[in-house]
Amino acid sequence: QLSARSSEPSSDREPLKSRPSWQDSVLPHSEPDSGLLVTHVNQTLDLLRAQGRRAGASEGQASEEWLSNHSLESAGLTISHLLTQGKTVVAAGRGARSQMEFSASTIEAFESRLFEMIELYHRRMSWLMEGSRKVFGLVKGSRVGVLIDASDANCESGRLQEFQKHLLCLLDEQLCYKKQLYLLSFGTQESLLWDSPRDVNLRRLHQARQWVQQLGGSGGCNLLGAVKKALGREDLSSLLVVLGSCPDQPADVLLAYVKQCLLGRTLPVHAVAYDNGHPMTHMALKNLAEASGGRFHCYSSDRQGAIYSSSDIALLQRETQKAMDLLSKIKEMRQGLLGDTFVSVMQKISLEVAELPPSHFLPKPPNHCGPLSIERQNFLPKTSADWLKSNGLKAKKLSLYQVLAPNAYSLLEEFVPVLRKTVTSTLHEKAMVQFEWHDGTVKNVHVDPPLLYNYQRQLASAVLMLERRVEWLTTGSRQIWGNVCEQRVTVLVDVSLMNSLYLVHIQHSLRLLLEQQMADKESFNIITFGTEVQPWNNEMAAPTLENLQDAWKWVLGLKCTGSRNVLGALRRAVEADLQGSLDEPQGIYLFTSGVPDQERAAVCGYVSECCAGGALRLHVCLFSGGGAPLPACVPPRFATPPETADTLRDLAHSGQGRFHWFRETGIVESDDIAALLAETERAVNYSQKCALLVESLTQRAGRKQLAGAPEGQPQQRGRGGPRRPAPPTPATLSLSRMQAKEGSPDDSAFSQKALTWRPTSAKAGVPPAEPGKSRTLVDTEAKQKKRSKVSQSVFYTEDGNSVGMVFKKYPKSKSVRKYIPFVSLPKEEEICSTKQWLRRFGIRKLKLDLHQLVSGPDCTHQKKLVPAVQKRVSAKYCAIFPSVQVNGIVRHLQFTARELEEYSAQLERVLRRYVQRMQWLLAGSRRLFGAVLEGRVCILVDTSGSMEPCLPEVKQELASLIWEQLHRGGVSFALLGFSDRVAMWRPALAEPTKEACHDAVQWASQLVAHGSTCTLEAIQAACELGDTLGIYLLSDGKPDSSCSLVLRETARRTAGKDIAVHTISFNCCDRCLAANAFLRKLAQQTGGRFHRCHGDVDAHRVAHRMLTEGFTDEDDPVLPAFEGDDLRMLMEEIGKARRFLTQARAFR
Predict the structure, then answer these.
(1) 420: containing domain
(2) Same structural domain for residues 929 and 1072?
């Protein structure tokens, strides 16, 4: 009506204007709609959140179905799709060849989409490893049958609670969304919750939870019976099998039955290996899942990497690896080649600027490119070890023991015929000072204060000279390279891609070396290495001015490329430059910033072989940069700075050279400086011992002065001077000897009296009664002798049987007060067990037990019952001394503040030595195998199927053991691997020659993990190798046979033989208590040691904190709890020392 009305003519109204039609407006430079073009910010947030969840949105889809829509092929991200976006260009001119040309934007867009897909796959894998999906995987199907392993092995104590927790999580997260459920548990017999599949509702889920909480061990693992009952149900769409132990039936029987039952029927089986590390079980479940068209899932509580063998995760990983391979090919395309095809990528920036190396933009020091300023030395350089041979304390006869030797006397013991016993001289103990000698003995030393004061001045001048040499070693090129001492020098310089940001620093270091230390040498050469090895000259040249300038010009043109081919550079230096001249002193100086590309054992073995028996030395200079590496640079072999320093230090010491580590801020570690600091510390120690000697002499003199004149004999001063005492009456012994000299016929009486005489130093205060005298008379004479203040000593003179007599005072009662001993500890590590080591250097052996020091007779707190007040009252002197609690008993502390400080200092030295011993036990091959003590050993390595994930690590550590302990220590050895059978390297023990060690490492690298664990057969084969042997057994669990049988047979085999079985628990989780208990009992039974390295990373961190921060707190840092015998005993001793140190500081 409106349109008709509007079309009618009207004279009194204006005609209506029609609305113009809608026109689309096209904006220039507009972006296409990617699904995120919205009109409100909330819609944008919702779309972004939905896009982040796209990876796990299809919860009902397995990875195979999900990848059909999200794979690289479906997204158009394969190499064929990329090649369609390029164009073929034929270069003009003769010999023209075609090449593919891509724009930089195309490559960058393709690369960006690849990164997005990789991120999408990672999000999908993260989603699959959340909640119950991490334990049981993604359960598909609407009508699901669940078969749960309820065997004794799967429901053992400590494991059942965690299993029930995971099953309840599965019910709440996945099974509650299914239509029907059919639950069945199986042990020896099957147990059903419902007779048939039931619909899922709240009541059914409640029943299922109660059923799960009532699960318990029910015998064996009858998986075949459970599968038979489940396959008999025709109304199931999928089957979930959760297996935590080995099935009773063989895998092939189980697989054949499932295939036969599923002919013409589709019932996918989702097989889950729940915390089951047996490889045969994994293989059986994989075959079962593949035969039914289902999927396999693996879960392990102690091995996080086990889940990556699951079907869903493995497919995503495979797709991720394809994307990574495409990125590698794109990287090759940027370098101009893709296979045999030439590729050109059109860059957006100038090619001249792009081709400039990063070092072109680095700041350079003044006159960096100018000619060298040569400096010549007027002396022959020496290493610190050689310099100390002529300038050290021992060389200058400034050793404390050399100074005290003329006035030091050993304790004398002689047999006295009259006394009929051996008597020790007591005169030196009163006139001299007791001093512990360097060999552990105690000598009586005559202290000469002027001599010791002069000696301390000489020590001060020697320390000043040592400090001047240390200062000299930290200046100029010596701060970077150390002291270059050899006359024939080859310099190996690391110019790998990791050093691109430090190329100018490397060039400046070489400039300083050429200017300051190379001019006086006989010949030199410079070799740079990245992936390729490039020498400055084909042979060594004399360091003339022209050659040095030419070498510097060559250094200015260096570029950083490739990785670190250290072994190639060493072979070039040894086999080309130094061929035929190994008898002349020559040195190789390796300048690098990281670990080599090759294995540590291979490089160290080659260096030790080249440097053995000759004058060739390899010195390593490690440079640690302060900045981060290039973003596009991936190190060929990753290592932390401490690991890098350990590797290169071992390499230098294998080449009989020195290790030097420096940063831009200064020197971190230097063998030259360490030797000088050790000599300085020795001088300071000598000076402190001198001060202690003088102080002990001063204290002894002060005690004599305080004692004054004896009671009853006051000193009388007058014109006549002191009154001389009357001549004493001759004693029985002197009369007897005089009578024997004069030859009197009445010898019997005097001889009888001589036999009843006792020396004044005897313990008894009353001499025995002589025959014929009454007891009263004897008591009276004893009291008179006790009151007398003089005594006499009779001795034979040099003139025949002449008798001499010496008058002296009675010795005072010996003090029972205890003093702080001075501790002498070894600097080098001894190859022995911790038990043997602590017998010599334990706290009790070093007499540093604080409880014993404060528990002497003079420290007793006396209380006596007073009848008048009817209570126990302390003695009057108790308030004079401070009182402390020692093991719940009150003791009087009679140590001075200085003595407690000395005790703390001594105990800190002992603690530091203990921590160094712990670091030594955790270093190298000792971390896994412990210290090898015997000279004849057999190494038994478990190669059963459970060792498959960790066997590469064992092979690497075994190679380190062969070279580090067996070859270096000259230990005859044999290797033996055992699984379901025993494989021996050689039928008898072999000497540790280089050829034998290489052969042993090669044999060990071919070991394969499979089968069961025949521990008993391996021990029996090892016992046949000899009657004196050390067996080192490495295993990750109990044997297949009975543990008691293995223990009994091992005891029978080793009876009457010197055979010790040392057991090594490797990769045994905390719940494998039975396995560790078996290995510990086997070691104790045969006199061996049990070793388990668990928590070594924490121990290294704790040791570093203790050595750097000191021992300020008893409980911080916390020591890890080691189970191995060696580490456990050392940890207990460290804990005891820390407690004593804390108590001593509290007493202070």
Answers:
(1) 401-469
(2) yes
Cα distances (angstroms) measured from residue 185 to each of 210, 225, 301, 771: 13, 11, 22, 99
Mean pLDDT of 975-997: 92
Instruction: Give the SS3 label for residue 891.
Output: strand
Residue by residue, DSSP assigns 721-759 as -SPPPPPPPPPHHHHHHHHHHHT-S-HHHHHHHHHH---
Is 1127 part of a structural domain of the chain? Answer: no
Together in a domain, 181 and 260: yes
Q: Are residues 442 and 571 in the same domain?
A: no
Q: Phi and psi (nearest 5°) for 939?
A: -100, 120
**Cβ atoms of 499 and 460 closer than 8 Å:** no
Number of domains in the chain: 5
Which residue in 1007, 1081, 1014, 1066 sits closest to 1036, CA to CA? 1066
Summarize pLDDT for 628-674 with one digit per residue, the tens: 444 444 556 677 888 899 999 999 999 889 999 988 788 889 999 99
Q: Which two tokens stand for residue 481?
A: 């390279």
pTM: 0.39
Q: Which residue has the higher pLDDT, 843 or 577?
A: 843
- Cis (ω within 30 of 0) for the bond into 768? no
Residues 455 and 534 occupy one common structural domain: no
Query: What single-letter amino acid sits at 1028?
Result: T
Say what the pLDDT of residue 8 is.
39
Q: Give the pLDDT of residue 359.
A: 53
Q: Are residues 155 and 219 in the same domain?
A: yes
Decide which of 197 and 305 is more confident. 197
Residues 6+ apart with CB under 8 A from 362: 501, 503, 504
Cα angle at 743 between 741 and 747, to 5 degrees?
A: 105
Specify the pLDDT at position 743. 46
Dihedral Cα 534, 536, 539, 542, nearest 10 deg: -160
3-state DSSP call for residue 349?
coil
State the DSSP string of 932-987: ---SEEEEEEE-SGGGTTTHHHHHHHHHHHIIIIIIHHT-EEEEEEESSSEEES-S
Q: CB burial class (10 A; 0-12, 13-18, 19+) of residue 483? A: buried
State mean pLDDT over 937-960.
Answer: 89
Instruction: In the chain, count H helices and then E strands.
Output: 39, 35
322 domain residue, yes or no: no
Per DSSP bridges, beta strands 936-942 and 871-874 are unpaired
Flag whether 1148 is in a domain.
Answer: no
Residue 228 sits in a domain whose CATH number is 3.40.50.410
Q: Which residues contact 744 (CB under 8 A, 6 or more apart)?
A: 750
* Residue 958, number of CB atoms within 10 A of its CB: 22
Q: For residues 552 and 514, what is the distance between their CA atoms, to the nearest angstrom? A: 8
Rounded distance between C-alpha atoms, residue 1123 and residue 1092, angstroms: 6
Picking from 23-37, 154-168, 599-613, which range would have the lowest pLDDT averaged per residue? 23-37
Residue 598: name the closest of 565, 641, 646 by CA: 565
Over residues 785-800, the pLDDT tens digits come to: 445 455 666 666 666 5
Per the structure block, which two tokens stand in for 432?
């001299």
Per-residue pLDDT at 1066 exceeds 80: yes
Domain boundary among 250, 281, 303: 303
Given a cut of 50, whether residue 740 has pLDDT beyond it is no
Residues 212 and 144 reside in one and the same domain: yes
Is residue 463 domain-shared with residue 490, that is, in the same domain?
A: no
Res 1021: pLDDT? 92
- CA-nearest of 707, 910, 902, 702 to 819 is 902
What pLDDT score does 704 carry?
Answer: 58
Q: Do 465 and 496 fall within a single domain?
A: no
Residue 857 has pLDDT above 90, yes or no: no
Q: Among residues 254, 279, 303, which one ends one of the domains?
A: 303
Q: What is the mean pLDDT of residues 979-988?
A: 91
**What span, in angstroms and rounded, lies between the C-alpha atoms of 261 and 190?**
19
- Distance, in Å, from the CA atom of 990 to the CA atom of 997, rounded to the nearest integer, reads 9
